[in-house]
Design brief:
The protein contains twelve helices and 13 strands. It is α/β, with parallel strands linked by helices and 322 residues long. A seven-stranded mixed sheet has the order 7-6-8-9-10-12-13. A six-stranded parallel sheet has the order 2-1-3-4-5-11, sandwiched between helices.
Length: 322
């Protein structure tokens, strides 16, 4: 009798276990398809992409990443778009103004999350910050030019400001016009130096110190890729400089930067992607900028070009390169 009771008990336990397993079994035997993101970089992987990958919600859903490096080549970007269209994905991540404009000119239905686009409304990428009016949403690396120039003028006195920019990039042209407008308010003359390729640097920037007292460099992928060559010319002529690209201060030797954190931009872009993968339409999600910027100072450059950084400026710095 005892043996019978033990047998029945084990049968009951086995039934409960099987019932519990059945209750957790999916309704279909088909494997869950991971959501696929095509990640298009323009000038290689940056902290923006690393932040984006870190911010994706992988606990809720499986995510597969396809990485495509355009290498600042429009022809290569066209090939990438053809590959994506031949094998559709759930979402496209794209870096920068130029690449985003090209992608959106050809991709009309797949959701697109853009990142590091300074002026998405002014350049026609989205209709407004609250509603894109298309299949895109994203994050801007815009830092108000007024704030950048004020920080620059507190550190270095200048009456003649040079701006080094890419004439083939619409975002650079818009920022150049903003600086032109502010030059009248702040009382300095503006001198423009367009750079379209590396060979322009020795030609355009020769004898720069005779023309300007300081140089401002807006955010642009081409100018960033030429950063070390440009900054070596500036520093050799002992010209103070400010850039709107985070990495140009520690990597290229720019003196100052009032910049967004690329990693934070990536995390914010990932929030947009998570909403889309959860079912939201891009047009229903507001595009964003960061509300905090980092003030960088390169003390190595300051010593090299003979600039004394005021103590009040050093106190404000978020990052100091020594």
């Amino acid at each position: 009798m005892a043996r019978l009771e033990k047998t029945v008990a084990w049968l009951l336990i086995g039934s409960l276990v099987l019932a519990g397993q059945a209750s957790f079994c999916p309704a279909s035997d088909e494997p869950v398809r991971p959501r696929t993101i095509a990640m298009i970089t323009w000038r290689g992987e940056t902290d923006a992409e690393r932040g984006f990958l870190a911010g994706l919600d992988r606990k809720t859903r499986a995510i597969a990443i396809q990485v495509h490096h355009a290498g600042q080549s429009v022809a290569r970007l066209d090939e990438i778009i053809e590959q994506i269209q031949a094998s559709p994905v759930d979402l496209i991540y794209v870096f920068g103004t130029t690449a985003t404009r090209i992608v959106l000119s050809r991709v009309k239905t797949t959701p697109v999350v853009f990142n590091v686009v300074s002026l998405p409304v002014a350049t026609g990428i989205i209709a407004s910050w609250s509603h894109s009016g298309n299949n895109a949403v994203g994050v801007s690396n815009q830092v108000p030019v007024r704030q950048q120039l004020k920080a620059f003028m507190k550190t270095c006195e200048f009456n003649r400001l040079g701006i080094i920019f890419n004439p083939g990039e619409q975002n650079s042209l818009v920022l150049k016009r903003q600086v032109e407008h502010l030059s009248r308010e702040f009382g300095f003359s503006l001198h423009a130096f367009p750079i379209s390729e590396g060979t322009d640097i020795p030609v355009r920037l020769a004898g720069l110190a005779e023309t300007v007292d300081a140089v401002y460099i807006p955010a642009d992928s081409l100018i960033k890729s030429l950063g070390r060559k440009i900054v070596s010319v500036l520093n050799a002529q002992k010209i103070p400089s400010m850039a709107a690209v985070e990495s140009m201060v520690p990597d290229d030797g720019i003196l100052l930067g009032l910049v967004p954190s690329y990693h934070a931009l990536g995390l914010t872009a990932a929030e947009k992607a998570n909403h889309i993968l959860a079912g939201a339409a891009p047009d229903s999600i507001a595009s964003a900028t960061l509300d905090h910027f980092q003030f960088w100072i390169n003390m190595k450059t300051a010593q090299r070009i003979g600039v004394q950084i005021p103590l009040s400026t050093l106190i404000m710095a978020d990052r100091i390169v020594r």
